[in-house]
Design a protein that fits this description.
This protein is an alpha/beta fold. About 35% of the residues lie in helices and about 25% in strands. Strands 2-3-1-4-5-6-7 form a seven-stranded mixed beta sheet, sandwiched between helices. It is globular.
Amino acid sequence: MKEEIIISGFGGQGVLSMGKILAYSGLMENKEVSWMPAYGPEQRGGTANVTVIISDEKISSPILSSYDAAIILNQPSLEKFESKVKPGGILIYDGYGIINPPTRKDIQIYRIDAMDAANEMNNSKAFNMIVLGGLLKVQPIVKIESVMKGLKKTLPERHHHLLPMNEAAILKGMEIIHLQ
């Protein structure tokens, strides 16, 4: 098993931390992982993306030109990465940040209204965990238990009270994602 994923959106949407959590979850399952962020100097508000590879085998290179799955959180990212999803791959997008939805017919396209769900939960910081939940529903790369273990290890102890909220956000994402 080898999954090559790109997560892309505006800085401040939790793109890089979503990738880091995914990679750390792979480590919790003793998999080989690669986490490679890319962002402009304006990080918050500018475009950011992260490439995550989770594999049972050694990873030869973290640099990819095509992906098994893409999580797209804004229009500029859709324009840049829609064509780089491998035929038969998965593209997940948040309806809030996309004006012209994806149009490819050779990939599975899922919509997740994570921004709306985060607002309903009265917690905009849950946005990226909702999206991550959507990914894990359609492509169960790692177990939720591994994500929670990874979060507990990476979050400072003063934030551990947020773990139940993060788990609820993941489950909400699994509930609301749907095939376009």
